[in-house]
Amino acid sequence: MRGDGDSTAGGDPTPTRSTGAPRNPGTSDPAAGQSPSTGSTAPAADEGAVPTAYVGDWTTTIDNASGTHPRSLTITQGEVGDTVMTLVADGPTDTGSYHCVFDATLAAEPSADGPLRLGPSQVRTGPATSCAPGGSTTVTLLPDGSLQRTNDDTGESLVYTRR
């Protein structure tokens, strides 16, 4: 997860099938390099249920034995049931690289300061052999301005910084 020696090309927030992480990153995705555009017009940052402080682009990396695995998380404005999170997961494999894009919906109305409760992630881009949908997560804004995304089932998390 955080370069703790896990040999899988992990995802976010933990490199297992239950989090939306690549399951078998040995398969390259021809869609690599595509942007994570949702294809729809998102509401303005202050129009919707998502607290404005969460809206934006966030990044982190996972370093492990197979290399550096960048993650880009985008949170957009929306209401309960709307897609408000997109995660792009990339990284090296023994035979090339992987590229997965995941989406998640806002599962519950957040308070004015959060946290965000997100539903299970769905694979938008990436082959089933490399990218697996994930479970629900909770996103919390930390006092230092970073963002923590925690797997609701396992408690594992990753911290992101604003891009």
Word description of this protein:
With 163 residues, the chain is mainly β. The protein contains no helices and nine strands. A nine-stranded antiparallel sheet has the order 5-7-8-9-1-2-3-4-6, with no helix packed on it. Strand 8 (147-151) and strand 9 (157-162) form a beta hairpin. The protein is globular and about 45 Å long. The protein starts with 55 loop residues before the first strand and ends with a strand.
Task: Kindly list the characteristics that best describe this protein.
163 residues, mainly beta, globular
By secondary-structure content and strand pairing, the structural class works out as: mainly beta
How many helices? 0
**Mean of pLDDT:** 79
Within the largest sheet, what's the order of strands?
A: 5-7-8-9-1-2-3-4-6
So what's the overall shape? globular
The helix fraction, in percent, is under 10%
- Using the CA coordinates, give the radius of gyration: 15 Å
DSSP strand count: 9
Helices and strands, in N-to-C order?
Answer: EEEEEEEEE
Share of residues in strands: 35-45%
Low-confidence stretches: 1-40
Q: Cα distance, first to last residue?
A: 20 Å
Largest sheet: 9 strands, antiparallel
